Amino acid sequence: MLSAMEIYNKPDFKYREETFSILCVNAWELLLKSKLLNLSGNKVAALYVMDYKTLKSGKRSKIKHKKINRAGNPMTIGIEECWRGIQEDFGVKVDQAIIDNLTALTEVRDNAIHFVNDDISLCLVVQELGTAALQNYLHLATSWFGNILDGYNFYLMPLSFVREFDTSRGALLNPQEKKMLSYISSVEARHGTGKSSEDYNFLLRIDLKFHKGSTVDAVPVKYSKDADATEVRFSEEDITDRFPWDYSILTTRLGKRYEDFKVNKDYHKFRKQIERDKKLAHTRLLNPNNPNGGRKILYNPNIVRKFDAHYKRSSPDGNSGSNADT
Question: In angstroms, rounded to a whole number, what is the distance separating the alpha carbons of residues 84 and 91?
C-alpha cells in the first residue's frame, strides 16, 4: 500500500491512476489473505485454488487437488474468493462498502492491465475510490491486527493544478471507459457519497476552495465561538514550531536586541498587552483538564517587532550585543 501511495503522490508520473489501482488492489488482496490464513490456523492450503483433476481415463477425480500454474506452483485464490471465505467459512463480516470499493478499483485495474485507460474523468474517480480504499484499509487492518500501521501517514495528495475535473467529465471517454464509469456511478448511488457506514466508505469526495488573503502573514485558521464552526486541533509539535520561545528566552533576546531594555513594570505591562495577539503568544495549560490551574505563555519570534517601537535597537557593534534574528 505504501508503494501505491508513493507512486500516486509523485509530482509527475505517467500512468499514475492505473499503477495506483494495481498496487492498491494487490495490497488489499494480501491483507485479506493474511486474515484468511490467520483464521485457518496458518494453513497455507486455505489459500490454494482446489479443483478436480482430469484422470488419464478422461474422467474427473472425485477429490479436489491443488491447481498448478504454468510455473508448476500452486495457484492461490483471488480477492473475491478471499472475502467470501472470510465471511462464509469463518463468519467474520467484511463491510459491504469495502467490497464495493474494491470491486470498483478492481474494474479499473483490470481495464488498465487488459486494455487502456485514457480519460481525464477517470482520474477523479480513482482519487475518490483510492482515498476511501486507504481509509478502509487502515481501519480494517487495525481492527484485525492492531496498530501495525501507526508509523505511516496514509493520504493521497488532493491537489491538481493541471486537470480541470469539473469541466472535463465525459470529454474523452471511449465505450469501455463509459461502461466502467457508469458501473461505478451506479454503485455510488446505492451508498451515497461518504455515507456507506460509520467506519468504511465506498468513496470519499474531496472539495477544495481557494481564498485570497489580504496580507502576507494572514493565517488560514481563525478563532470562532460558533458551535458549528469546523474544529481544528494542533499537536504539541505544531504549537512548539509556531511558539518556540518561553518567557526566559524572550527576555534574553530582548536584552540583546535593545540597549535601553530593562526587566521592570513597564516591560511586563507592555508584554501582557502584546500577549493578547493570538498569532504572537499562546497560553499552554500545565494541566489541560484544569483551566484554572497553572499556565505558561509561549511566544512566536515575530513578537520582537512589537517591541521595536518601544525600545531603542542596539547597534551591531555596540556594547549591548548584536541584533537578534527575527
Answer: 10
- Residue 297, helix vs strand vs coil: strand
pLDDT one-digit tens code per residue, 78-130: 999 999 999 999 999 999 999 999 998 998 888 877 766 655 667 778 888 88
Q: Write the CB contacts of 308 (distance below 8 Å, at least 6 apart in sequence).
A: none
Compute how many other C-beta atoms are within 10 angstroms of the C-beta atom of residue 16: 16
Collapse the DSSP code of 321 into the 3-class scheme (helix H, G, I; strand E, B; otherwise coil) and give the result: coil
- Contacts of residue 4, Cβ cutoff 8 Å, sequence gap at least 6: 19, 20, 23, 24, 27, 130
Helix or strand run (H / E) with residue 256: helix 247-257
Q: What string of DSSP letters covers 186-250?
A: HHHHHH-TT-S-SS--S-----------SSTT--S------TTSPP----HHHHHHH--B-HHHH
Contact present, 74 and 68 (Cβ < 8 Å):
yes
The C-alpha atoms of residue 200 and residue 240 are separated, in whole angstroms, by 34
Going by C-alpha positions, the residue among 44, 24, 22, 23 that lies closest to residue 33 is: 44
What's the half-sphere exposure (Cβ side, CA atoms, 13 Å) at 238? 4
Write the DSSP symbol of residue 15. Answer: T
Q: Which residues, 6+ apart, have CB-to-CB distance to 204 below 8 Å?
A: 128, 131, 132, 135, 193, 194
Q: What would the pLDDT profile of 17-53 be if each residue is shown by its tens digit?
A: 889 999 999 999 999 999 999 999 999 999 999 888 8
Report the range of poorest mean pLDDT among 47-51, 157-161, 196-200. 157-161
